[in-house]
Amino acid sequence: MTQQRHESPELGAAAARMMRALVQRASEGDTEALEQLAALEQLAPWATTVAGHRLHSWGYSFTELANVLGVSRQAAVKRYSPTPIDSEPLGEHGWPWVSYWADRALSSTAVMGGLVSRLAGRRG
Is the pTM of this model over 0.70? Predict the structure, then answer.
């Protein structure tokens, strides 16, 4: 059941550019940039888990997930077997916040802008 949105590589590239920009800002003395990188570091494993669970629930096999991630099928089963997903990393609005983007097929620029705004809002 291989399916791909053609914008995904662009979105990944945009995320990488934004992270490099945060690294550059931190290297110039911006402590808020370091704080944002730390927030992204905490969010990334959770986001990968949510994506894997969602892909599996949409019919992707553990073998397909394992191939994408470069891990064994057993590792994919262990990571993505049905378990409750904690929405806490995204705050009080949880999963609906991410679902909002997906349902509206927003551009990568809009998604990354929303992510950075959301993370910045959690600083306080």
Answer: no
* Per-residue pLDDT reduced to its tens digit, 23-54: 999 999 999 999 989 888 888 888 888 888 88
Supply the range of the domain harboring residue 62.
8-121
Provide the number of structural domains found in the chain: 1
DSSP 8-class letter at 93: G
Mean pLDDT, residues 79-83 taken together: 78
Closest CA to 4 of 71, 64, 75, 82: 64
Are the beta carbons of 68 and 48 closer than 8 angstroms? no
Residue 8, number of CB atoms within 10 A of its CB: 10
- Quick one: tokens of 74? 């057993």
